[in-house]
Write a structure and sequence with these properties.
Layout lengths: L15 H13 L3 H7 L7 H25 L1 H12 L3 E5 L12 H5 L5 H10 L2 E9 L1 H8 L15 E3 L5 E4 L16 H11 L17 H15 L12 H10 L8 H15 L7 H14 L1 E5 L3 E4 L1 H9 L3 H9 L5 H16 L3 H7 L1 H17 L5 H8 L21 H14 L4 H5 L3 E5 L3 H13 L3 H6 L17 E10 L2 E9 L7 H4 L8 H20 L4 H10 L3 H12 L5 H8 L3 E3 L6 E3 L2 E3 L12 E3 H7 L2 H16 L6 H6 L4 H18 L12 H26 L22 H12 L3 E2 L2 E2 L1 E6 L7 E5 L5 E2 L3 H17 L10 E2 L2 E2 L2 E15 L5 E17 L3 E10 L11 H23 L14
């Protein structure tokens, strides 16, 4: 205690001396308050510790209880996190976009494959015109394999529009098995669903409740999992809610929960989705119920594929009418009909736990489980006891098979199906069922209106009345046969700067098979166009090689050249040394050949006779141009012989020496190869072929081998001009159609001619917009695709003039004035072809023994105006072909009937505005 003198008087200031005394004493002895501050407080008692711990636990439990019921902290955390997850769609390619890598939903809709799709499309002439720009938080979330909070598109699938944006195909509207709102769902079904799966998101849940977590079920699932980890034989329960199940079905690998980490991903993804619209989750919870009932996985059924959603499940598994089922359950009564409806719905709601097991493998187990659940539902007040009794007395009856799909007209689908086929090829998706499920909108090149008009007319050609009305029963048109048995195909293409755009792609075969792209047709004299094109290319090649050669060398080639084409080229350049390529090519069309059928030709492994279609050509000596215009077979047989000899002269061995000198090394090598091949084929030794006294047998086989080698050398040149097959038939008859063709390949050749020798692919697709309402949106546009000059421009232009002659005065003269409009003639050219294709057998003397009809075909490949081209065919396949008589006059007559429609379409395109890129609508999310 301080001395009395050191205590200051109340209300008075201490003197300096007193202050010093206080300070001095304070150094040794502090004030009482300072002394207490430096004293160590006594430790709390054990009782005080227990009370503090208990108070903390009570507070923590209270906070947890409040959180589990009100979800206040969760709503704050997840709503703020989710608000950072957003994207916009902007023009051009995104430099930092993330895509999901797995999950049934992401794989089915194509999101998981978008990087691969993008690579394939860019390799085929597409570029990205617009793409999603994801926020950094969103792209990080996706790369962490957590589902973004944007939900599934309400309806998704392949949609195809035509060049005018008219709808051609819609895989979305073909699946009407979706609820549009909760009002369509009977309340008893919602109560049943929530009782089975998720009881904490109903009307009693708070405004901020997190539908992704059911604390009671989650805690139980955690304890059971912990017990199993300790070796206890406890059952496992997932503890999933409807919200997490949706994430699992859609985004988890295989639609399953394979690890605790995957469960955490599901909970986070579902929570972010629930709070994406803000802290109040009532609307999100309603969406969860609706989306679950629309997308719940219900196995797969034969002839249907995957079954998703309650409505579709009722139709597929029970053959029930969903509308009738839901009408019965809107105001349920304990009667047998209502019991059937409820039991079917209850079976599907429960079978989600193991759909393949319950719906396809063990239906008795399913019935036992739902009968047990019915008691629980009655105890919970979802159904009453009277209804329970009726329900248990109602057996669960499945449909014997999935209901038949609504029949579709394949004829009406030929255009869209061609687009689907091209899209599948571009993306590497071979299954059209899978293709239809992709979330993609496609702008095709097709003109839907014109496609419909052409298809309608081709269909009318199957009517006997229509055929008679338009005088198509005349000779050479459809002289004999049932009109309904003829299959027609039509392909029309417009050449534009962005590519060769297919405007019409159709045929009348009511089957998935595509005649234009898939049918191998022997279209007769249309092959003369390929032969002539190849011939002119060889002539141009000779001009390149010989135009600058000295005259004395040309003299030698003119006299001793190893093939007729070389001898003609050399002699022509000797007499006219300064010939331009154009003039040289024109002169090659004036070369003359006999049309006589009296000669016998060794080709195609034997001796053959050929005939002309018109007997008046038999005694003619015709130029190549005249023979092409009038389609004279024998001239082109002889022209093909010259072409084959050209290639034989350029084989890697001397064909003349092989045939003339028995000791020539190449002859011996060829004979050894032939003997080895025949030995393998017939499982016998052919060493006898190598001895010189078998000269006749050797020469026969060598002639066949040399011709085959020449055709093998010729094949790449034909394929370069669009020939669709790997091999040419080694026969002069290839010039008149024995190697067959495809309509689309003929159109490809005509496109080369129209485009001055440049080959460009036929395009059915201009734009493709993927994942439109998602953070993965990517829009592609085609800028033309690869092009290659495969024919000299002078050759292409000369061919166009010759093709015009076919219409002006040749086999297609029927069309001469068909495309006149107001006195203006739209330029037309083309090549006709017909085939009466039979399998014939002959005696050794050459007498015909049997003749079996294989097919009858006719076609016309054409150009129209400056940049339109296409092909039309008529065909009958199989033995019934013997009952028909028609020639290329039939497709010509059909094209003439189409002429007014086609002329109007061409003029509309030529005078209308150019089709530029469609503007991109860029939504913000």
């Amino acid at each position: 205690m301080l001395p009395q003198a050191a205590q200051p008087l109340q209300g008075a200031q201490p003197s300096p001396a007193a202050h010093e005394a206080v300070v001095s004493d304070a150094v040794i002895l502090p004030f009482p308050s300072e002394r207490r501050a430096h004293q160590k407080p006594p430790p709390p008692s054990r009782k005080e510790l227990y009370l503090a711990l208990l108070l903390g636990l009570v507070l923590l439990s209270a906070l947890l209880l409040i959180e589990t019921r009100a979800s206040l902290l969760q709503s704050l955390l997840f709503s703020r996190w989710s608000a950072k997850l957003h994207y916009t769609v902007e023009k051009g390619r995104s430099e930092d976009i993330a895509f999901p890598t797995t999950g049934p939903f992401d794989e089915r809709l194509g999101y998981a494959h978008l990087e691969q799709f993008s690579l394939r499309l860019r390799e085929n002439g597409f570029h990205i015109t617009a793409q999603a720009r994801q926020s950094p938080e969103l792209s990080d979330l996706i790369r962490s394999h957590i589902a973004p909070p944007f939900g599934a598109p309400f309806a998704s699938g392949l949609v195809i529009r035509d060049s005018h944006q008219a709808l051609l195909y819609d895989a979305v509207s073909r699946d009407p098995w979706r609820f549009q709102s909760l009002d369509e769902i009977p309340p008893v079904l919602i109560r049943t669903l929530l009782f089975i799966e998720n009881r904490n998101i109903g009307a009693g849940a708070g405004a901020y409740a997190n539908p992704a977590i059911d604390w009671a079920r989650t805690s139980k699932a955690f304890l059971l999992y912990a017990g199993r980890s300790l070796g206890l034989d406890w059952p496992l329960e997932g503890g999933s809610t409807l919200a997490t199940q949706l994430v699992k079905f859609q985004h988890s690998p295989g639609g399953r929960t394979e690890s605790p980490l995957e469960k955490l991903h599901q909970v986070i993804g579902a929570s972010l989705a629930a709070y994406h619209g803000g802290a109040d989750t009532r609307a999100a919870r309603a969406r969860v119920i609706l989306e679950y009932l629309n997308t719940m996985p219900l196995g797969a059924a034969a002839g249907v594929g995957e079954v998703n959603g309650l409505r579709r499940g009722l139709r597929v598994w029970f053959g029930a009418n969903p509308i009738a089922v839901f009408a019965a359950l809107k105001n349920p009564h304990p009667d047998p009909a209502t019991a059937v409806a409820y039991k079917q719905a209850l079976a599907l709601l429960y079978s989600v736990h193991a759909p393949t097991h319950y719906l396809a493998k063990d239906r008795q187990a399913l019935e036992a489980r739902i009968d047990a659940y019915a008691g629980l539902l009655q105890a919970a007040g979802v159904i009453d006891s009277q209804w329970l009794g009726v329900l248990r007395n109602t057996p669960l009856r499945f449909a014997p098979q999935a209901p038949e799909q609504t029949p579709v007209s394949f004829v009406d689908r030929k255009g869209p199906n061609a687009v689907r086929t091209e899209l599948g090829n571009l993306l590497g998706v071979s299954n059209q069922y899978g293709l239809d499920r992709l979330d993609v909108r496609v702008d095709s090149t097709l003109d839907g209106k014109l496609q419909s008009q052409v298809t309608q007319l081709l269909r009318q050609l199957g009517s006997a009345d229509f055929v008679a009305k338009h005088a198509l029963r005349e000779p050479h048109v459809l002289q004999r046969g049932d009109p309904s048995g003829v299959t027609y195909s039509f392909l029309l293409v417009e050449s534009r700067p962005e590519g060769n755009l297919v405007r019409v792609h159709t045929d009348t075969l009511d089957a998935p098979f595509d005649v234009n792209d898939g049918m191998k047709l022997e279209l007769g004299s249309t092959a003369k166009l390929r032969t002539l094109a190849h011939y002119l290319e060889l002539i141009a090649q000779l001009h390149d090689q010989l135009a600058s050669v000295d005259s004395h060398i040309l003299d030698g080639l003119a006299a001793n050249g190893r093939d007729p084409l070389t001898r003609w080229a050399a002699s022509t350049l000797v007499s006219q040394p300064d010939l331009s390529l154009d003039r040289f090519l024109a002169l090659s069309l004036e070369r003359r050949y006999s049309g006589s059928p009296d000669e016998e030709f060794f080709t195609g492994a034997g001796l053959h006779h050929f005939g002309n279609f018109e007997s008046e050509d038999n005694d003619q000596i015709l130029t190549v141009r005249e023979a092409f215009i009038h389609s004279t077979n024998l001239v082109f047989i002889r022209l093909m012989r010259d072409i084959v000899e050209f290639h034989e002269a350029r084989l890697p061995y001397d064909a003349n020496a092989v045939m003339s000198d028995v000791d020539f090394p190449a002859r011996q090598q060829l004979l050894r190869e032939i003997a080895a091949k025949e030995a393998r084929k017939q499982h016998a030794s052919f060493d006898w072929l190598l001895t010189t006294h078998n000269r006749e047998a050797q020469d026969l086989r060598l002639r066949i081998r040399i011709e085959r080698d020449a055709f093998a050398r010729m094949t790449p040149a034909w394929r370069k001009l669009g020939f669709p097959f790997e091999f040419l038939v080694p026969s002069y008859a290839t010039a008149i159609g024995s190697s067959a063709d495809r309509p689309s390949a003929l159109a490809d050749l005509m496109g080369i001619i129209v485009n001055d020798g440049w080959r460009r692919p036929l395009l059915d697709i201009q734009r493709a917009d993927f994942a439109q309402d998602t953070p993965y949106r990517t829009e592609f546009e085609r800028y033309g695709g690869p092009t290659e000059q495969v024919m000299r421009t002078p050759v292409a232009r000369l061919l166009r003039s010759v093709l015009a002659g076919v219409v002006d005065s040749g086999t297609a003269v029927r069309l001469k004035h068909a495309f006149d409009t107001n006195g203006v003639q739209l330029p037309v050219g083309g090549k006709t072809g017909s085939g009466d294709n039979r399998f014939d057998t002959f005696s050794r003397e050459g007498r015909l023994l049997t003749s079996r009809a294989v097919s009858r075909t006719a076609g016309f490949v054409f150009y129209l105006g400056d940049r339109w081209f296409g092909v039309i065919t008529a065909s009958v396949a199989g033995p019934q072909a013997k009952d028909y008589t028609f020639t290329s006059s039939l497709p010509l007559a059909a094209l003439k009937l189409l002429a007014p429609t086609l002329t109007a379409a061409v003029q509309e395109q030529d005078t209308g505005p150019s089709q530029g890129p469609v503007s991109v609508n860029l939504p913000v999310h």
